[in-house]
Specification:
binds heme C, 7 helices, mainly alpha
């Protein structure tokens, strides 16, 4: 498969038609695929006693270190089960320190959980 940044995401997304509505300057907006810690998520994270700086750091790592070879992948495109297999494989390629590794894992786990809570509402 081609992993050219940006094109990769645009051309291979199964839900491309669905996401077409979200198209911003030729591709999907980063906010949609790598959600920022919004007010809503902030409250949720605080309720759960999570570290906000760690989650913010995790998102930053996701957007910088994790995009060296491909454009940012939609976090929720994969299930928690799939991420369990993907994350260790990708982390190994990324040469992250222990803190950044924990941060990116915490971020992805939190976003997945917040999504499942949301859809359960
Ligand atoms: C050294 C290059 C490189 C880095 C850095 C990298 N990836 Fe990847 N990633 C790949 C390649 C290549 C693929 C295509 C599948 C494969 O070959 O494993 C991929 C595929 C993926 C996929 C799609 C699922 C899959 O298994 O195909 C996800 C999600 C992903 N990467 C997330 C991440 C995350 C999160 C990080 C940061 C922790 C990261 N990647 C860092 C090279 C990289």
């Amino acid at each position: 498969m081609t992993i050219h940044p940006a094109k990769w995401l645009c051309h291979n997304s199964i839900s491309a038609a669905l996401l077409a509505a979200l198209i911003v300057s030729g591709c999907v907006s980063t906010e949609q695929i790598v959600p920022p810690i919004s007010d809503h998520l902030l409250t949720l994270a605080q309720d759960e006693g999570l570290s906000i700086p760690q989650l913010e750091r995790g998102r930053l790592v996701y957007l910088t270190d994790c995009t060296k070879c491909h454009s940012p992948e939609s976090v929720t495109r994969y299930t928690a089960m799939q991420w369990k297999e993907i994350m260790p494989r990708m982390v190994k390629q990324t040469s992250l320190n222990t803190n950044d590794r924990a941060a990116v894992e915490a971020y992805v786990t939190f976003i997945l959980r917040s999504e499942s809570l949301h859809s359960g509402e």
